[in-house]
């Protein structure tokens, strides 16, 4: 899941994602809106970022589809993914903007599709990069975070679901604390009452006041259900911020060092 | 004026004792400690090691009387101020806290101003709490300016037995604009780096700029740099959210000092003592946290322009 603040961030993220896919000989499927404007097309984007893709487009390693209900069918996506794997590609990559999907189906239907494709990723060497605008409503982002079991990546924050909870890497500040809050709400929504939810902080490099508050607001429901939140292995600066704001002694919280 | 006369239990008092010799010091300290213990308070006497031994010999022991060393309790003005605030706000007690001693002014008179600012800010930070202080100053050895600052930062002058209002007292916001406070100015040289921030998304780059430049060009310890970067981040967030874009960041790196100036584009007035009081449960905390991460932060208002915040790290 790619959460972007602006078009430049989106284009940078997509270009890096395609470049990496081509390097590892992945089959890449990209879904664009019908009648996409040339300046927003994938081919223009790759050209702008110097990603050499002409040969891959000609060979079919990189395929661009126009959005339709058919290309969002999990059964069809599974079928063409299996064909690509059978043809010898070690992995398959899918990407498109959430807004593209919403141009051919209601957001509620898209949610069902996302759940189904997330299961595909769990069972096969398939990865899907869904592109979401950070300015979307909080509820939409929370749903999106919940649908992407493998985590999300934003300009400066990466999350990964782990068996006991969630791992964070990068930085959280006032610009992206909503994304962290959404990820925590989504991840704790499926926890058992009175269970312990771990947030692994060893790779979180920076946390500010707004970010620390997201730990509180993003886990409220879990703690109301008498669950606990273990903030594990924070770095010195992150731990200092948590203690200054007394998150470490808030109801249901525990900070654990290495 | 409230504060003169008898020390009232459950209230805040901050007195200065101006003494000429050890006899006056011991007499007043003994009176203050006795009054505190008789009022049911917890009493702390702090000083240097040799002075603490002197006081122990005179005052003896009591279950509610403790002795503390300045080297443990008074490391820096900011850490001392917020340690008292956290103790009083986060571990509220029905028992008043009585504290007496001399702040560790140090040998260099140039350092006295930072403790004078501390003494003034005590009135802002600790006044909501049942806290009583008798701060002792030796008029025989300390410079006149230090004694003048002591009179300007303590609402009452005490002999240990009698108290009277200090006619030279100034409230903290006023004192910070007085020459006695010696608020430092940014270096009078070309800045090392600068940038304008239009949006919160620019924070990461600003932090990176400050951190990289400081690590590369100063001898300031890394943990102090990290704290400084976090403090600058909070001030920038305030500038963008509560002031107005663009937020202007100007940065000076010297071998032993980092200085940052943040100016916003707002039109509001700025409170020089903002961010000192213990925050309300859902109140803003950015500047309060920043002040605990960075020893010296000064907020001022430039007419017809926005709010200016100066941050110093040594």
Q: What is the tally of beta strands of chain B?
A: 12
Largest interface: A-B, 19 and 21 residues
Oligomer: heterodimer
Instruction: Kindly report the average pLDDT value of chain B.
Output: 92
List the helices and strands and how they pair.
The complex is a heterodimer of chains A (258) and B (314).
Chain A: E1 2-4, H1 7-23, E2 27-32, H2 42-48, H3 54-59, E3 62-66, H4 74-86, E4 92-97, H5 98-102, H6 107-123, E5 126-133, H7 138-147, E6 152-154, E7 157-162, E8 165-172, H8 177-188, E9 196-207, H9 209-218, H10 220-224, E10 228-232, H11 236-244, E11 253-256
Parallel strand pairs in A: 1-5, 1-6, 2-3, 2-4, 4-5, 8-9, 9-10, 10-11
Antiparallel strand pairs in A: 6-7, 7-8
Helix pairs in contact in A: 7-8, 8-9
Chain B: E1 13-19, H1 22-38, E2 42-47, H2 49-59, E3 65-69, H3 70-73, H4 77-90, E4 97-101, H5 112-125, E5 131-138, H6 144-153, E6 156-158, E7 163-165, H7 172-175, E8 193-197, H8 203-217, H9 222-243, E9 247-254, E10 257-263, H10 286-293, E11 296-301, E12 307-313
Parallel strand pairs in B: 1-5, 1-6, 2-3, 2-4, 4-5
Antiparallel strand pairs in B: 6-7, 8-9, 9-10, 10-12, 11-12
Helix pairs in contact in B: 4-5, 5-6, 8-9, 9-10
What does it look like?
The complex is a heterodimer of chains A (258) and B (314). Chain A contains eleven helices and eleven strands. Chain A is of the alpha/beta class and 258 residues long. Chain A has an eleven-stranded mixed beta sheet with strand order 3-2-4-5-1-6-7-8-9-10-11, with helices on both faces. In chain A, helix 7 crosses helix 8 (177-188). Chain A is elongated. Chain B is built from ten helices and twelve strands. In chain B, the strands form two sheets. In chain B, strands 3-2-4-5-1-6-7 form a seven-stranded mixed beta sheet, sandwiched between helices. A five-stranded antiparallel beta sheet of chain B has the order 8-9-10-12-11, covered by helices on one side. In chain B, a hairpin with a 5-residue loop joins strand 11 (296-301) and strand 12. In chain B, helix 4 packs parallel to helix 5, helix 8 runs antiparallel to helix 9 and helix 9 (222-243) runs antiparallel to helix 10 (286-293). Classes of the chains: A alpha/beta (258), B alpha/beta (314). The A-B interface holds A 5-6, 155-156, 171, 173-175, 206, 208-210, 236-237, 240-241, 244-246 and B 90, 199-201, 203-204, 207, 223, 226-227, 230, 233-234, 237, 240-241, 285-286, 289, 292-293.
């Amino acid at each position: 899941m790619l959460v972007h603040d602006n078009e430049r961030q989106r284009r940078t993220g997509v270009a890096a994602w395609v470049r990496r896919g081509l390097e590892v000989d992945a089959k890449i499927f990209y879904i664009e809106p019908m009648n996409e404007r040339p300046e927003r097309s994938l081919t223009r984007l790759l050209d702008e970022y110097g990603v050499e893709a002409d040969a891959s487009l000609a060979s079919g390693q990189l395929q661009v589809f126009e959005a339709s209900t058919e290309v969002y069918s999990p059964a069809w996506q599974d079928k063409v993914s299996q064909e690509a794997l059978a043809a010898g590609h070690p992995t398959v990559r899918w990407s498109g903007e959430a807004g593209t999907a919403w141009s051919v189906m209601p957001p509620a239907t898209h949610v069902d599709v996302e759940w189904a494709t997330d299961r595909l990723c769990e069972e096969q060497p398939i990865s899907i990069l869904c592109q979401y605008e950070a300015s979307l409503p909080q509820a939409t982002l929370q749903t999106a975070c919940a649908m992407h079991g493998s985590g999300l990546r934003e300009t400066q924050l990466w999350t990964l679901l782990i068996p006991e909870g969630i791992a964070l890497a990068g930085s959280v500040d006032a610009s992206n604390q909503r994304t962290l809050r959404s990820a925590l709400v989504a991840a704790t929504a499926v926890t058992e009452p009175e269970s312990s939810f771990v947030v692994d902080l060893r790779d979180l490099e920076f946390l500010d006041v707004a970010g620390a508050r997201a730990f509180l607001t993003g886990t409220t429901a879990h703690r109301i259900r008498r669950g606990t939140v273990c903030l594990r292995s924070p770095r010195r600066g992150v731990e200092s911020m948590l203690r200054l704001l007394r998150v470490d002694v808030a109801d249901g919280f525990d900070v654990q060092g290495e | 004026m409230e504060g003169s006369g008898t020390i009232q239990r459950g209230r805040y008092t901050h007195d200065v004792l101006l003494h000429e010799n050890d006899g006056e010091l011991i007499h007043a300290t003994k009176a203050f400690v006795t009054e505190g213990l008789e009022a049911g308070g917890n009493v702390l006497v702090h000083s240097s090691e040799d002075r603490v031994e002197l006081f122990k010999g005179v005052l003896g022991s009591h279950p509610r009387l403790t002795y503390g060393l300045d080297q443990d309790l008074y490391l820096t003005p900011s850490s001392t101020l917020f340690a008292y605030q956290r103790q009083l706000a986060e571990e509220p007690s029905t028992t008043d806290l009585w504290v007496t001693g001399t702040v560790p002014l140090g040998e260099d008179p140039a350092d006295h101003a930072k403790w004078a600012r501390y003494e003034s800010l005590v009135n802002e930070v600790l006044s909501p709490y049942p806290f009583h202080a008798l701060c002792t100053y030796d008029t025989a050895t300390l410079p006149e300016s230090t004694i003048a600052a002591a009179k300007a930062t303590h609402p009452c002058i005490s002999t240990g037995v009698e108290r009277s209002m200090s006619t030279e007292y100034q409230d903290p916001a006023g004192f910070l604009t007085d020459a006695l406070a010696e608020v430092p100015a940014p270096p009078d040289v070309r800045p090392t780096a600068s940038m304008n921030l239009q949006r919160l998304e620019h924070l990461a780059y600003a932090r990176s700029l400050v951190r990289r430049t400081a690590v590369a060009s100063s001898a300031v310890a890394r943990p102090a740099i990290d704290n400084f970067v976090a403090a600058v981040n909070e001030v920038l967030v305030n500038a963008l959210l509560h002031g107005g874009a663009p937020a202007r960041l100007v940065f000076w790196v010297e071998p032993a000092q980092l200085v940052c100036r943040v100016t916003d584009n707002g039109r509001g007035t700025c409170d020089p003592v903002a961010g000192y009081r213990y925050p309300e449960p859902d109140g803003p905390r950015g500047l309060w946290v920043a002040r605990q991460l960075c020893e010296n932060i000064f907020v001022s208002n430039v007419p017809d322009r926005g709010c200016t915040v100066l941050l110093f790290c040594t």
